Amino acid sequence: DQQVKQNSPSLSVQEGRISILNCDYTNSMFDYFLWYKKYPAEGPTFLISISSIKDKNEDGRFTVFLNKSAKHLSLHIVPSQPGDSAVYFCAALLNNAGNMLTFGGGTRLMVKP
Amino acid sequence: DVKVTQSSRYLVKRTGEKVFLECVQDMDHENMFWYRQDPGLGLRLIYFSYDVKMKEKGDIPEGYSVSREKKERFSLILESASTNQTSMYLCASSLGTGGNLYQPQHFGDGTRLSIL
Q1: Pairing state between β B87-94 and B73-78
Q2: Could you point out which of A10, A48, B31, B37 has its C-alpha 20 to 30 Å from the C-alpha of A39?
């Protein structure tokens, strides 16, 4: 039973438009949520995180929104660029579980020039 | 920059073989992790270690073991490889958590393992 789910396996967006990647979770005890980005033949790289006590965190073109009542978070990329084409993984952390992350299945984003 | 190095990018082994996957990090991180990545399932944690000679089971430890004799090195062992262990294996490391401060995990580039 997956505790973190990304229901869209792929997303295609035009360059310059907004990309919205979604993630749902079931465990209300998660303390942190993170997004990782993965290019082919490379390991995932950390992109942005949000604490469960916040509802928004912004870093340049990337913004993560957290809706705790809906157990939902989303990553917004504005404006999208072709270099953003990658697989994006949502992950969640329980503080009392050390540094263990629970990952979603990933969403492949394709940004068309 | 943190460097996590996995010894092989591609590996082909036969069913029943004992397989060793090696991972080395150069940032003196306390925590090290082994994941496998399969389509649609994301990354699933196999084992992790928060100190030398310490190990903890992750979500899918069956068929695997690990070894951490030195802080910088974390080895994943497939005791008797089977075809369902064909996958992408990813190693990661991170600083030990200090209070509530989250420390991001840094990943290696992965080893694509095929068991024939």
Answers
A1: unpaired
A2: B31
